[in-house]
Amino acid sequence: MTETSKHEWDIPATDDSPHEGGFRADLQITTDRGGPRYGEMIEQVRSFMGKVRYASPTPELADEVIEDLHKLNAKLDTMLVDEWTTPSGTRIDLPSRGNITLPPYEVKDGGPDGVDAEVTFEDFHLGGNGVAHGGHVAVAFDDLGGMAAALRTGGVARTAYLTVNYRSLTPLNTPLVLKTWVDRHDGRKLFVKGTLHDGDRLCADLDSLFIELKPGQP
Fold first, then answer.
1. pTM (2 decimals)?
2. What's the whole-number mean pLDDT along residues 9-21?
3. Does residue 4 carry a pLDDT above 80?
4. Mean pLDDT of the chain
5. Backbone phi, then psi, for 130, in 5-degree steps?
6. From edge to edge, which strands make up the β-sheet containing 201-212?
C-alpha cells in the first residue's frame, strides 16, 4: 500500500466528529462487522505470523510466499475502511476484540473494580529462549490497564506512563491470568496496577498512570 492510498481511507477525528479524544466514543458495538468468519481470518493471520517467526524458507519458497501475499494484499486493498469503522478492536465476541496487534486474550470479568483476563502469548511473541518478549507483555498490560481505567470512569483514558516489572519468565502458548485495577483515582488521574501470573508464579506486575480525557481531547 502506498502512502497516498493510505490517506484515502485513514481519516483522523475532527472537532465536530463523534470520536472523543481520537477514539470511537460511539462504538456502535456489533458482532456483524467483518462477517461471521472474521475471527477465523484473524486466527489464520496469527498462525501465519507465528510460522514466519520460526521459518527459514528457501529462496524459492520466499518468492512464492511473497507472490501470494501480494495477491492477498491486493484483495484487502479493495475492502479498506477508516479506523472508525474497521471491525478490528470492536468485535467483543473475539479474543482481544479482534485486534491483530494485541496478544489474544479473553476477559473473564470486568467492571469498575478491575479486569480479569486470560492471555496467551503465541509463537509470534517469542523474545528468546522459548519465552515471551517483554514488549508484548507490556502491550497486554497497556490495553487491559486502559480497559480498567475506562470501566472505572465510563470514559476514555490515555496512558501517561507504564512501568512493567518482569519478575520471572513468561511462557509461550500457556494460558496466563492477567489482572488490572485502579489502585487510586485522583481527579482525572487513574493509577492502575496489574499482575500477570502463570499459576501461582508471578511473571510480571504493572505500575501505571492513565489520564481521563476531557470531551474532544486528543
1. 0.87
2. 49
3. no
4. 89
5. 80, 15
6. 105-111, 114-119, 176-186, 189-198, 201-212, 157-166
Exposure of 40 in the CB half-sphere (CA atoms within 13 A): 3
**Half-sphere exposure for 135 (CA within 13 Å, toward CB):** 6
Per-residue pLDDT for 27 more than 80?
Answer: no
Look at residue 133 in the predicted model and tell me its pLDDT: 98
Is the distance from CB of 187 to CB of 140 less than 8 angstroms?
no
What letter does residue 171 receive in the DSSP assignment? B
CB 189 within 8 A of CB 209: yes
Burial of 74 (0-12, 13-18, 19+ CB in 10 A): exposed
The span from the CA of 41 to the CA of 44, in Å, is 5
Q: Which residues pair with 159 in a beta bridge?
A: 210
Cα 171 from chain centroid?
19
